[in-house]
């Protein structure tokens, strides 16, 4: 029997990047996986149901959770939906700030709000956050604020629902080779090759490279599993040592 047989998981933002690879990993290990996303995973999930869902819409989020639970219980929730916009508090339009918050943070609130009542004891939630909740590059005011909101939400939910035996944690990736990161790199690369700017970004990490989505997915799967049964309310940096270093070079 596969280790996750009998587990019912819902992954928001599971059509690409970290969410997709996490859904694939959970499925490979025997879990029943449902993906909720605006985009179609295009057959990458080997028959796992895909639910078209705009995480900004409470009714759509509720419907996705209800469908995934299928009249039974939901064991695991992964929230990996997210968007990135660049700008300071001066240059970021209010509407853009609201959009980033609504997808990255409010969507996680809506997903948990719908899922927790359908979770039994032993349930687990993992939120995909970012190291930018703790330390920022230039021009990420809206994105960093949304990830900081997520971190506070994780702690609050962990405390509130410990009595229900539901655990809540987050992962905080550094730079990961995902479609979103590649789109960002493309906007900054000028005339140079895309792989060159990804390598440059990777060089800022002590491990001298960007992460692959599977390296984050492995941590998510662990935090969902019973092997992490005493872990809740915590954030796990999957950042190649990025936040362990000082920028001063000796």
Automatic annotation (TrEMBL):
Which family does the record claim for this protein?
Answer: Belongs to the short-chain dehydrogenases/reductases (SDR) family.
Q: What is this protein called?
A: SDR family oxidoreductase
Q: Which InterPro entries match?
A: NAD(P)-bd_dom_sf, SDR_fam
Keyword vocabulary terms for this entry: Oxidoreductase
Tagged with keyword Protein transport: no
Lineage: superkingdom: Bacteria
UniProt xrefs under SUPFAM superfamilies: NAD(P)-binding Rossmann-fold domains
* Keyword Oxidoreductase attached: yes
């Amino acid at each position: 029997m596969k280790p996750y047989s009998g587990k019912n998981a819902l992954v928001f933002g599971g059509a690409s990047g970290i969410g997709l690879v996490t859904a694939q990993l959970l499925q490979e290990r025997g879990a029943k996986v449902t993906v909720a996303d605006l985009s179609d995973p295009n057959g990458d999930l080997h028959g796992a149901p895909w639910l078209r869902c705009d995480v900004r819409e409470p009714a759509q989020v509720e419907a996705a959770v209800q469908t995934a639970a299928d009249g039974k219980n939901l064991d695991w929730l992964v929230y990996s939906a997210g968007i990135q916009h660049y700008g300071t508090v001066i240059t970021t339009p209010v509407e853009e700030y609201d959009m980033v918050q609504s997808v990255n943070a409010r969507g996680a609130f809506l997903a948990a709000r719908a899922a927790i009542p359908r979770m039994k004891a032993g349930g687990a939630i993992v939120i995909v956050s970012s190291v930018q909740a703790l330390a920022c590059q230039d021009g990420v005011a809206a994105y960093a604020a949304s990830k900081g909101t997520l971190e506070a939400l994780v702690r609050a939910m962990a405390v509130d629902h410990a009595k229900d035996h539901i655990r809540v944690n987050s992962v905080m990736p550094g730079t990961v080779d995902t479609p979103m990161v590649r789109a960002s790199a493309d906007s900054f690369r000028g005339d140079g090759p895309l792989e060159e700017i990804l390598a440059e970004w990777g060089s800022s990490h002590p491990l001298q490279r960007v992460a692959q989505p599977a390296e984050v997915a492995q941590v998510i799967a662990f935090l969902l599993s019973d092997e992490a049964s005493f872990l809740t309310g915590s954030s796990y940096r999957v950042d190649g040592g990025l936040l362990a270093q000082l920028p001063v070079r000796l």
